[in-house]
Amino acid sequence: MGNESRFDGKAAVYDAARPGYAPALMAHLASEEGFAAGTRVADVGSGTGRFSEQLLELGCIVEAVEPNDQMRAVAEARLGERAGFSSTAGSAERTGLADASVDRVCAAQAFHWMDPQAFRRECRRILRPGGAVALVWNFRDPASPLVRASAAVCARHCPGFAGFSGGMDFDGDAVARFFEGAYRTVSFPHDLAYDRKGFVGRMLSASYAPDRDDPAHAAYAADFERLFDEHAQASVLVLPNSTVAYIGEVA
């Protein structure tokens, strides 16, 4: 399955259930990493525009790049009238943006779907001198019993499940190979609180989640309903999470 169709049929639930990123990260990007008002940022793999919206709130000029038509349409419907927002149907490897046209590039919850070296070359092409890249994720706490139980449900029902965030080995050198030099890591606590609908929707928004016409869909959703009942307190489930960013130059 190509990345342009990976989230077909999931745009609405993705937009409704996916969380934003830690406000503390956004403050750090603005004050320490050059994501200030007027900065032109390419948000590559922008999905339904969750991170794009937070960049707009910083005053950035956002060039959203998303290959999936359905995901991009949701972002354009919600953000299309916002000053500073534009959207294109490019990919990480071929953004369609002009040479040396942006000050920063970011990929939020998306780098694990990309060809790292092709994306690196594209970043070098579109960035202005002195530009930098930020790779951002919301990371579940792997020590959490809830997170471990969630992974077990995904493994049981989803043949395409290789681990959260595409099974990327963040303890290995995938990020180091991308930057080919120094980069910095920042991490901010960002636990996520869900009601029942939000938690089940979050798990149904995953690329590997069974579609509604898949025989495994009902059992998959039911298992997450059960996990909610087991772990929620006062009808709220808290998922231990941090927002992490890897930031550096690719010159």
Automatic annotation (TrEMBL):
Molecular functions (GO terms): S-adenosylmethionine-dependent methyltransferase activity
Gene3D superfamilies with a match to the protein in the record: Vaccinia Virus protein VP39 (3.40.50.150)
Cited InterPro entries: Diverse_substrate_MTase, Methyltransf_11, SAM-dependent_MTases_sf
Keyword Methyltransferase carried by entry: yes
UniProt keyword Transmembrane, yes or no: no
GO biological process, one term: methylation
Signal peptide: none
Keywords: Methyltransferase, Transferase
Homology family: Belongs to the methyltransferase superfamily.
Name assigned to this protein: Methyltransferase domain-containing protein
